Amino acid sequence: MPHGTFFDFDPLPLKDAEVLIVPVPYEATTTYGGGTRGGPEAILAASRQVELWDEDNDWNPSQAIRLATVAEISPDANGPAAMLEKIKKRVKPWIAEGKILVTLGGEHTITLALVESYLTRYPDLTVVTLDAHADLRDKYENSQLSHACVMRRVWELGRPLTLVGVRSYSAAEYDFIRVAPRLTLLKARNLRDPDYLNLTLEHLGRIRGPVYISLDVDALDPGIMPGTGTPEPGGLTYYQALTILKAITERGPVVGLDVTELAPIPGHRVSEFTAARLIYKFLGYLYKSREAAKGSDE
Ligand SMILES: [Mn+2]
Q1: How far, CA to CA in Å, does 214 sit from each of 62, 95, 103, 113, 154?
Q2: Using CA atoms, how far apart are residues 136 and 268, in angstroms rounded to an integer?
Q3: What is the CA(283)–ligand 1 centre distance, in A?
Q4: Tens digits of pLDDT across the chain (298 residues)
Q5: Angle between the N-to-C axes of helices 270-297 and 39-47, in degrees from 0 to 180, rounded to the nearest 10
Q6: Cα 56 to ligand 1 centre (Å)
Q7: Angular region, 70: left φ>0, alpha ψ -120 to 50, beta rest
Q8: How far apart are CA 21 and CA 258, in angstroms?
Q9: How far is the CA of 271 from the centre of ligand 1 (A)?
Q10: What homologous superfamily does CATH list for 6-297?
Q11: Neighbours of 151 (CB within 10 A)
Q12: 265: three-class secondary structure by DSSP
């Protein structure tokens, strides 16, 4: 295992793990700043510095989380379609066993393979993505499998899709957003208004059934997340991101998470540390909500 394990947890045998950390250092269609291939390794290294006591719920989630870190899914030189197939082949058996995957990108394109794989086990899946960009282009630089098209391809799979934190899209994407069914756009600029934030949380709270979360790190403000290929000013604050992740996990089962587009800046650790911290927060919320659900069954 070249990367070591996430959070320095004692490695569990795969069969005993509920959560799998899956590194996917794939980068092919990045169009501006590169470097997302270094994302997984940077997040893994940063995760080992995350304080395990969680002041959010005053508990130590690491004592509950049953986690294993698997070997990376290495890039396929035969292009995006081959890479997506490779990812599906690797992850489907884990998803079939009910594992919760936390996939570390790499570019956002990998989300398409993950959602397709999750749909084979959870046909009633809803996808929530946090992203600065709509990623709803039909085609970009002559590719339908560009990171700029990933949410269009995900939307085409026929399930509800909610985009949170968006603040950058083209005229054609705007026209698409206005007419597309099953699509909800919750803009970053409006989240500054507490009433709108509450509406956002209500919308997320109303989602029924399993949810898949795709976190493009550029959803966050570049002040706390400068290490990304296509930074956009005006992003989510850390606490807004936490509130949103908490609302989604408290509402019902979250079956998977991906964290994409992290491009580490040498000597500048805030981006990967923020990403690792968000993942630990997410897992804390997830296990807390499961505990609460168990408690209410008794
Ligand atoms: Mn983005």
Answers
A1: 22, 16, 9, 12, 11
A2: 31
A3: 23
A4: 445 678 888 889 999 999 999 999 999 876 677 899 999 999 999 999 999 999 999 999 999 999 999 999 999 989 999 999 999 999 999 999 999 999 999 999 999 999 999 999 999 999 999 999 999 999 999 999 999 999 999 999 999 999 999 999 999 999 999 999 999 999 999 999 999 999 999 999 999 999 999 999 999 999 999 999 999 999 999 999 999 999 999 999 999 999 999 999 999 999 999 999 999 999 999 999 988 888 876 5
A5: 70
A6: 27
A7: beta
A8: 10
A9: 15
A10: Ureohydrolase domain (3.40.800.10)
A11: 28
A12: strand
- For residue 28, the CA-to-ligand 1 centroid distance in Å is 15
The pTM (predicted TM-score) of the whole model is 0.96
The environment of the single-atom ion ligand 1, i.e. residues with CB closer than 5 A, is 131-133, 216, 218
Q: How far apart are the CA of 294 and the centre of ligand 1, in A?
A: 36
How close is the Cα of 137 to the center of ligand 1, in Å? 12
Dist. CA 20 → ligand 1 center (Å): 24
Please give the distance, rounded to the nearest whole angstrom, from the Cα atom of residue 69 to the centre of ligand 1: 25
- Ligand 1 center to residue 248 CA distance, Å? 20
Gap from CA of 215 to ligand 1 centroid (Å): 9
Please identify which residue in the block is written with the tokens 């002040």.
223
Q: What angle do CA 235, 252, 282 make, to 5 degrees?
A: 45
3-state DSSP percent of the chain in helix, strand and coil, to 5: 45, 20, 40
Residue with tokens 């946090």: 130
Q: Domain ranges in the chain?
A: 6-297
- 118 in Cβ contact with 202 (< 8 Å): no
Distance (Å) from CA 258 to ligand 1 centroid: 13
Give one DSSP letter per residue of 144-167, joined into a string. SSSGGGHHHHHHTTSS-EEEEEE-
Tokens of 43: 């997040």
Assess contact for 107 and 218: CB atoms under 8 A. no
